[in-house]
Amino acid sequence: MLNLSLPGTGTRFCDGLTRRNMLRVGSTGLFTGLGLPQLLAADETTTGRLARAKACIFIFLEGGPPQQDMWDPKPEAPAEIRGPFATIPTSVPGTFFTEHCANCAKIAHKFTVVRSHSHADNGHMTGYYYVMTGRKPTFPDGEHPIPTNELYPSLGSWVARELGPRGRVPAYINMPHPMSAGGPGFLGAEYAPFVIEADPSQPDFEVKDLSAVTGLSSLRLAQRQKLLAGLDQNRARGGRAAAMATYYQKANALMQSAEAREAFRIQAEPVELRESYGMTQIGQCSLLARRLVEAGCRFVGIDAPGWDVHFNCFPSLKEDLIPPADKAFAALITDLEQRGLLNDTLVVMMGEMGRTPRVNAQAGRDHWSMAQSILFAGGGVKPGQIIGATDAQAAAPTSDPISVADLLKTVHTILGIDSDKEYPDPLGRPVPLVGSGRVIPGLLA
Asked: Where are the domains of the chain?
């Protein structure tokens, strides 16, 4: 079944909203996989601009990771601000993380932390939308159904539109479920993500969209193709119908491609390597992301939920949240480097917000968008840096404040995309990919 991301999700946030409200394009129609052409109708010409990276892996810690409990510790602050975690040195002299970021601390010289990302949207869905589209939301957080990318395309969809696929796999992929603000907006369904709605850490993991329909022989498959071709001869072609006709064979090739099936076959990886990432959802998604960019995917979005830590947060941070993310990120950077892929792959890890400086009365941290940390690696990023700083409470930037527009412009620039390029929206109004912001000063080598 092919899942196209639409408003909604399946994990519950503090407001009780679910994370799953999907359009499902099934395999029970005239020909299995008819939705796939829409994912392959990418412009196969590049922008012609200097690209430092060929692909991006974007790990989204959904709900808001606490900056002061991870990459921006405040050991001199009072206990109600610094939290219970100890501070440890990293491989970069003078730089410290908290004790549960030990794997990242060992390779801190291989990536850069921007500690001064800041914006003014304190909502989960609205903040997610803002970060992924660069547009301030016009809807209140918690509105149902969530209006996700009904107009403005997400970062991944822009990358798919501007760069197109490099191999047999789709240009834009989400896992292990849709990024809630990862839709294509007015670009149309052909630039929606191909969604792997399965957990690659599970023993029975498979991408069902690449499997042939049970009982459908090659002869029957050929007959259906012939029938569809006959129907196309009598059908007026225009708009999305033309796109479907043009890319139908590409979709069929993807489903029949041994190379594509192999790219998704995480079971082929050595057990030792899989364990180095962690046999967790975020760990195995990160490993699969490496396989997918290796196979030609341009943008892999990993949606890692659970970071909305309002109540009794420190046990879950210690046991369930920080260590898996720390292990996955460190293993991904190390693996990419060892395979010679790090220079060509930009890796970003962040959430839609940070968390409040002061621990609340329920021993948790609440929403706080005014300060958060972002990790950058590969793709021409100058490693071993800390860019920006926050005050003694990790409440606000004290130097080098970085905006959402700066973040998006930086990613576009690293991938060789002109972020000032404009496309007409459905009303004919010119819409730039980003249109403002700057490349994060000092980030690139």
From this structure: 2-432
